[in-house]
């Protein structure tokens, strides 16, 4: 996996987890 793609995936996962932890609905 290209490094940039991996970093983007990590960032997206972190953001998703933050939303879930804080009870924010992404949709």
Main beta sheet, described?
Answer: none
Mean pLDDT: 86
Following the backbone from N to C, one meets helices and strands in this order, namely H
Would you count the extended β strands for me? 0
Beta fraction: under 5%
Distance between the termini: 28 Å
Determine the number of helices (DSSP H or I, runs of at least 4 residues): 1
What is the general shape? rod-shaped
Which regions have little confidence, pLDDT < 50, spanning 5+ residues?
A: none
What does this structure look like?
- By secondary structure, the protein is mainly alpha-helical.
- The chain is built from one helix and no strands.
- It has one helix at residues 3-21.
- The radius of gyration is 11 Å and the shape is rod-shaped.
- The mean pLDDT is 86.
């Amino acid at each position: 996996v290209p490094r940039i793609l991996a970093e983007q995936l990590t960032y997206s996962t972190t953001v998703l987890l933050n939303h879930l932890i804080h009870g924010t609905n992404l949709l």
